[in-house]
Amino acid sequence: MNRLLTLALFALPAVAAFCQGAAEPKAPAAPPRNASAAQAEENAPVKEGEAKPAPQAEAAPAWRAEAALAFGCDFYRPLAAQSAGGQNVALSPICLANLLDLLLAGSVGRTADELRRVLNYPTNATEAAPAAALLPATESAGLTIRQATGVWVSPAFEVKPDFQTALKSRFGAATQPLDLSKPAEAAGKINEWVGKQTEGKITKLVSPGEFTRESRMAAVSALYFKAAWVEHFDPAKTKPGEFKLAGGKTLAVPMMAGDLKARYTAWPDGLAALAMDFQGGKLTFLALLPPDAPNALAVLESSLTPAFLHAVTGSLRPEKVQIQMPRFSITASAPAQALLAALGADSLFKDADFSAMASEPRLAVSSMNHQVSFAIDEAGAEGAAAASAVITAKSVRIPLKFVANRPFVFLVLDHDSLAPLIIGRAANPSAANPSAAAAPGATETPSTPAAKKPQPKLKQ
């Protein structure tokens, strides 16, 4: 694989179900507990900044995986389009959708309608198990999957009892008191929790600048997994190899190699797909390799839809494949707030209706972050993801700032007619007579599938 490689990281859980024939993810049954033990666990005190471990989630309905896949494709396409071809891209739709499910639980009216559309909920769907239920917790020798939800609230912010109940029963979370008006302390506590949940892969999800005295609540969805290949690569066969970048240049990278059992398909136009299973039977790695042609990667990424991926996975066949694949590690972030607003959830960030969450009016999400860490090597893959949302009160006007700490243009005008008395530029306030032009030469520093199988069609 010495050409550009598109990794369908966002589709791992859903593609695993498609490739292995699972109609619906099933959560393992929880061991029986007596009533007193369950009550004691429910009422156990929680330290500030900590979250209770999530209980076993109910199995997600059959449509949930398809909705998560559609959401992932919808989010990935514009993210890829606005990213340079040579830039790594990664997101975790399940992690991000789980955070949006939490916000949906506290939303009504327009905000709830927008979130349902963005999350691809069926029109007649009732409140379902959150996206995290698609990946039940697993701890085994070859597979680890963990998810957690954390919610922190300012001391004076009153959360409605029904929302508290939803947090506990659906997300395994309880609100934790944290003074969000102290930015450094709030960011430090939340990042510490995220680092613990992601095995240190993500440690700076939120920043102090996201918190003000108007901050009311912060919610975080975190995910961690580590999976071993069913058939692993021999490290002794990993050699330097060429990887062709988007611009045509090549890099020498560690290239894993092996003749391994996998599932494979290819089409006459040059598109190839490879699927490799991880131990535990839940996760599959799917790589889509576009033709070695100009703009082929962009065409492939713009074609990513559930129907396209169904056609790809439906055409895969067990084969012995001579595989060459780079060993790599990716850390990426996504502008979740801008992308979600563009997808139609704009009220979330302007005038959200969170009246199912709290009685305080005029709340909105003031910041949202999403980060992903993913690495692949001869033994398998390890990944982590986290998504955060900070909810801020808009009822008290936050002071506007105008800090003229760089060159600016000024005018002195007649108030009514705008007749100009003076027009100028303040470029150097310390100079008594700033009339000299810039020195000459000065420059600015820019601050073919199996027979009769449908073929997925790339957009032209």
Shape: globular
Number of helices: 10
- Run of helices and strands: EHHHHHEEHEHEEEEEHHEEHEEEE
The CATH architecture category equals 2-Layer Sandwich
CATH class: Alpha Beta
Strand content: 25-35%
Q: Assign the CATH superfamily.
A: Antithrombin, subunit I, domain 2
Number of domains: 1
Q: What would the CATH topology be?
A: Antithrombin, Chain I, domain 2
* Main beta sheet strand tally, sense and closure: 7 strands, mixed
Radius of gyration, whole Å: 26 Å
Count of DSSP strands = 15
Q: What is the mean predicted local confidence, pLDDT?
A: 78
Helical content (DSSP H or I, runs of 4+): 10-25%
Structure write-up:
24% of the residues lie in helices and 27% in strands. It is an alpha+beta fold and 460 residues long. It has a single domain (1-27, 45-403), classed as Antithrombin, Chain I, domain 2. The strands form three sheets. Strands 2, 3, 4, 5, 11, 12 and 13 form a seven-stranded mixed β-sheet that branches. Strands 1, 6, 7, 8, 9 and 10 form a six-stranded antiparallel β-sheet that branches. Strands 14-15 form a two-stranded antiparallel ribbon. The longest helix has 20 residues, at 62-81. The radius of gyration is 26 Å and the shape is globular. 37% of the residues are buried.
